[in-house]
Amino acid sequence: LSALLVRQLAVIGCGLIGGSFALALKRRAVVGRVLGYSPSAGSVQAAQRIGAIDMGADSIAAAARGADLVLLAVPVAATASVLSELRPAAAAGALLIDVGSTKADVAAAAIAVLGENAARFVPCHPIAGKASAGVQHAEATLFDGRTVAITPLDANQIDELDRARAIWESTGAQVRTMNAATHDAAMAAVSHLPHLIAFAYMQGLLAQDDAADVLALAGPGFRDFSRIAAGDPVLWRDVLLTNRAEVLRRLQHFRSALQQAEALIAAGDAAALQALIAECAEARAAWPAGSR
Amino acid sequence: LSALLVRQLAVIGCGLIGGSFALALKRRAVVGRVLGYSPSAGSVQAAQRIGAIDMGADSIAAAARGADLVLLAVPVAATASVLSELRPAAAAGALLIDVGSTKADVAAAAIAVLGENAARFVPCHPIAGKASAGVQHAEATLFDGRTVAITPLDANQIDELDRARAIWESTGAQVRTMNAATHDAAMAAVSHLPHLIAFAYMQGLLAQDDAADVLALAGPGFRDFSRIAAGDPVLWRDVLLTNRAEVLRRLQHFRSALQQAEALIAAGDAAALQALIAECAEARAAWPAGSR
Question: For A15, A18, A75, A145, which has the most beta carbons within 10 A of its beta carbon?
Answer without folding.
Answer: A18
